[in-house]
Specification:
mainly alpha; 49% helix; 4% strand; 144 residues
């Protein structure tokens, strides 16, 4: 037991600290120094790793896009086009039907899954195109 403990502590201790570089035949110099990605020069003040090439606010989200996208989807999906019913009405009524027998989950062949997937797929498509259009217009992507 003591031999195993000394071997493990030797791996984490001075045995590795005395070797600052590794030998390899893949590089011209033959020696490559180990780099620590958590060096102080790569850290912000709060301790997070930074990357200069990747923008911090890559999503560039805007709450107006979410609001207008939701309104822009609820409007067309509320048109009674499916046997006199709307997609939103069918989806919300199927939620009520499934909540009527609450502890039991919806069956695999329930219409709830069709309305759920269709309604949300349409919502996410509208939100995606809304984000592209809104940010494209505000950042002049469509200007010549």
């Amino acid at each position: 037991m003591a031999a195993a403990a000394s071997t493990v502590s030797g791996l984490a201790g001075a045995a590795l600290a005395g070797r600052p570089a590794f030998s390899t035949s893949f590089t011209r110099g033959g020696r490559v120094s180990a780099r620590n990605p958590l060096m102080a020069r790569n850290l912000e003040r709060n301790g997070r790793i930074t990357c200069m090439a990747f923008p911090r606010d890559w999503l560039r989200r805007d709450l107006s896009v979410i609001g207008f996208g939701l309104i822009g989807w609820i409007g067309p999906s509320s048109v009674p086009a499916i046997n006199g019913n709307s997609l939103t009405g069918l989806f919300f009524s199927s939620i009520g039907q499934e909540l009527a027998h609450f502890p039991t989950p919806p069956a695999v062949d329930s219409q709830f899954w069709l309305w759920l997937v269709t309604w949300h797929l349409g919502l996410f498509i509208v939100l995606t195109f809304g984000q592209i259009g809104f940010k494209g217009r505000t950042e002049d992507y469509f200007e010549k």
